Amino acid sequence: MSTITATRPTVTASQNAISSKARKAGWILSGLVTAFLLADSLTKLAGVEAVRTATAELGIPVSQTPIIGATLLVCIAFYVFPRTSILGAVMLTGYFGGAIEVHMINQSGVFGYVLAPVYFAIVAWVGLYLRDERTRTVVKSLIGR
Predict the structure, then answer these.
(1) For 23, which of 10, 17, 103, 140 is 20 to 30 Å away at the CA?
(2) If you ran DSSP here, which 8-state letter would residue 69 be given?
(3) How many domains does the chain have?
(4) Domain that holds residue 91
(5) Looking at 3-7, 43-47, 112-116, 133-137, which range is the least confident one?
(6) What is the pLDDT of residues 92-144, one digit of tens each?
(7) Is position 85 within any domain?
């Protein structure tokens, strides 16, 4: 009697090899996302009046703005450092999910507001995929390549 065992394809280092141009593109994409989010975080932490007004218009207590800014700053820090970048990307994805929910509750425009965090999440993950071999390994093992 024989048994059938399922094997998962393994991903070798050579299959994860990526050109230096692609790696640089990954750092550029990650840098752009980081720069935008850093500006967003710092304006929340600084209590910029326009940010406080926009926060209030979305129904979020203005007193929560610095907490949101600090949370985003922590997510960015995890994303930027290579050792914790995957965790940072997951944390940013959760942060973006919260932003989507706030805009959906407020019935903001779909393409301008609701989907904007989705676009940022995609760019963040593509940047990470291009710059980080571990991320490529995880993605390729999930899709079975």
Answers:
(1) 10
(2) H
(3) 1
(4) 21-143
(5) 3-7
(6) 999 999 999 998 888 877 777 788 899 999 999 999 999 999 999 888 888 87
(7) yes
Q: In whole angstroms, what separates CA 17 from the centre of its chain?
A: 23
**Is 68 a member of any domain?**
yes
| Domain assignment present for 1 | no
Q: What is the largest CA-CA distance in the chain?
A: 74
List phi, psi (to 5°) of 144. 80, 30
Asked if the model's pLDDT at residue 23 lies above 60, the reply is: yes
CA distance 104 to 107: 5
Q: How far is CA 105 from CA 53, 54, 56, 102, 113, in A?
A: 17, 15, 14, 5, 12
Q: How far apart are the first and last CA of the chain?
A: 31
CA pair distance 130, 116, nearest whole angstrom: 21
Q: Please state, in angstroms and as integers, the Cα–Cα distance from residue 134 to each residue in 82, 90, 92, 142, 145, following that order.
A: 10, 14, 18, 12, 14
Q: Is the pLDDT of residue 69 over 70?
A: yes
Q: Is residue 9 part of a domain?
A: no
Sole residue written with tokens 């600090």: 70
Q: Which two tokens stand for residue 84?
A: 């914790």
